[in-house]
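User: Before I run my own analysis I want an independent prediction to cross-check against. Here's the chain; please return only the C-alpha cells and, at the end, one sentence I can use as a sanity check.
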Amino acid sequence: MKIKESIPSDLSKVLQVERQAFGDDQGPEIVDLVKGLLSDPSARPLLSLLAEDNGRALGHILFTRAQITNFIDSVSAVILAPLAVIPERQSRGIGGRLIKEGLRRLSASGVELVFVLGHPEYYPRHGFKPAGELGFEATYPIPDEHADAWMVQALQPGVIGKVSGKLFVPMR
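Assistant: C-alpha cells:
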C-alpha cells in the first residue's frame, strides 16, 4: 500500500472511497462535502491523501484550513474531515497510516494545530486530546454528551496553553 497526495485526476477514486465508506445514509452528503472542499479556494491550503494498493483506492483523508478567533494570522490550524476507508479494508491500520502521514506532512509545513470531530475512542490513539478541555470551542455547538468527540492535536510545541478560542472555517 502507498499513500500519495491526491491530484485532480484522482477525484473519482476519492469520491468512490467516500461513498463506500459512508454508505447510502451519509455517503451522498460526504461526497458533496469533499467535492465542495476540494474546489473551495478558502479551504486552502489543504492536504488530500489517498491510500492505494495496486491502483485501487482504499482510503482517503482530507485536511482543510481553519482559523481560531483572535488568532487569525498568528496560528496555522487545519481541520481533519473526513477520514474514510472502504469497508472491506477497515480495521487494518489504513486510517491510522493516513492520519500519521497527514500529520507528518502538516508538521513539516509548519501547521500548528489539527482539529477533528470524530470518534472519541479512535482519535486519541493517534494523539488527539479533548479540545474543549484545552480551551478550544467548536465552530458549531456540540451537545454535552458528545463533547469528547471534539479534539485537537498540537504539531508544534508550546501552542496549546498559549492559544485558545473558537474555531471557524473560512468560506468564500
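Sanity check: The beta strands are 2-5, 47-53, 56-68, 77-85, 113-117, 129-130, 136-137, 150-154, 165-168.
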